[in-house]
Structures are given as C-alpha cells and as structure tokens.
Amino acid sequence: MTRRRTHRISIINLNTGRGARATHHRYPARTPVLALDFGAVSVLVTTTASDQVTAADVDFARQLAREADAFACSVERSFRGLACGREAAA
C-alpha cells in the first residue's frame, strides 16, 4: 500500500461479527455498489459517478480486492492457523 498524503482526521471502527456482511449489487442503469453491513450501520462503496466508471475507480476496486483478500487470509490464519496461499486450500 502506498503512503498516505493526508493526515487522518478521524477513524471509524466497524467490527465484524454475527451481523456483518458484504454484498455486491449490480444494476442495469447505474454502476455497481458494494454494501458493507455492520448491524445497524451500512457503508456503500460506489464509483465516482453513478453512470460511468473511471480508471481511478478500477484502480481503487482492484486495490480494495487485494486488501480484502489479504485481510481474509490474515483472519483465517489467525482463526485456523493456516498459511496464506495455495497450501491453505488443502
């Protein structure tokens, strides 16, 4: 991950748990939406504009996917003691 250029003003901590889920929504007349639900709190991740996708949107989506995969691997490793990578699939 690259170094942040701005200082954080605030941090919002949303804990995973029984009610937490992530869902991807496709729409025919607008760009996709990623919904992160944490019980009574929802976070919607959308593109810059609802009618088009930019190169920056694609870059962010790929970065989000990489970091989410790394997060999932770390959580699984902590929970089950598995290594990340192909050997974890066995």
From TrEMBL:
Per the UniProt record, the source organism is: Planobispora siamensis
What protein is this chain from? Uncharacterized protein
Q: Give the highest taxon in the source lineage.
A: Bacteria
